[in-house]
């Protein structure tokens, strides 16, 4: 078995067989380098260029760790924009196709607030959203993070560029300390190092250099 085969990981069989039907034959370099630590429950900082398959890297970690029978928000994935949040939710639903009854809910700014409260009342396992709107729902008591055990900061560099630091800090105040945190980024500016030091526990750092 080649070391970049998904089957070299201890994924749930239904996740593994679904990857085959999606045509994902082998792991991309960032997946091969980050997934063992992600699946082992470690905090991970992963940097690789756009299009390198970062969503499936954290998405498989999310789905592997999720307890579907427990209908509580266990995972929060934060993205800089609604478009990116929608893309991530779509990819997660695709990866989760073989697992029944997983509820993924998006909570983004620029969308009507009221219907999101209604959706939250129905419940979800996974929330994908933008920091400002997620913070507002948490602050107003519409979304509880008490059962959160996995936090993903996707495109962390862009979230910082867009001024989401305060919203991120506020969300982190509500998140249980005992959790796994994954940070994905296309670049690695100084500010990321600061977030990493503030919110992550002994993170494993994985960087895949751009090849030209
Ligand atoms: P990034 O977040 O790094 O910019 P994405 O997660 O959006 O990249 O992935 C880019 C594309 O690659 C997506 O269309 C995704 O479905 C596809 N992809 C991801 N992992 C694999 C894989 N192991 N094999 C084939 N295609 C993949
Ligand atoms: Mg991405």
From TrEMBL:
Source domain of life: Bacteria
Motif placement: Q motif: 4-32
The Helicase ATP-binding domain, residue ranges: 35-206
Domain DEAD-box RNA helicase Q: 4-32
Segment forming the signal sequence: none
Family of the protein in this entry: Belongs to the DEAD box helicase family.
Protein name, entry field: DEAD/DEAH box helicase
Taxonomic source organism: Photobacterium aphoticum
């Amino acid at each position: 078995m080649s070391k970049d085969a998904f089957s070299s990981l201890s994924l749930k069989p239904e996740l593994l067989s679904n990857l085959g039907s999606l045509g994902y034959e082998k792991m991309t370099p960032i997946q091969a380098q980050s997934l063992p630590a992600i699946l082992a429950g470690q905090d991970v900082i992963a940097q690789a260029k756009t299009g390198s398959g970062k969503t499936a890297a954290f998405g498989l970690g999310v789905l592997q760790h999720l307890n579907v029978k427990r209908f509580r928000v266990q995972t929060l994935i934060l993205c800089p924009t609604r478009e990116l949040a929608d893309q991530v939710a779509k990819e997660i639903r695709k990866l989760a196709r073989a697992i029944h009854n997983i509820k993924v809910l998006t909570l983004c700014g620029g969308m009507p607030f009221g219907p999101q409260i209604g959706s939250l009342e129905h419940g979800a396992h996974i929330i994908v959203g933008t920091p400002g709107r997620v913070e507002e729902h948490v602050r107003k008591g519409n979304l509880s993070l008490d059962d959160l055990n996995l936090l993903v900061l996707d495109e962390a560099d862009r979230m910082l560029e867009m001024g989401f630091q305060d919203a991120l800090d506020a969300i982190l105040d509500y998140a249980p300390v005992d959790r796994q945190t994954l940070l994905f980024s296309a670049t690695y500016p100084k500010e990321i190092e600061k977030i990493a030091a503030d919110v992550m526990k002994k993170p494993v750092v994985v960087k895949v250099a751009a090849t030209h």
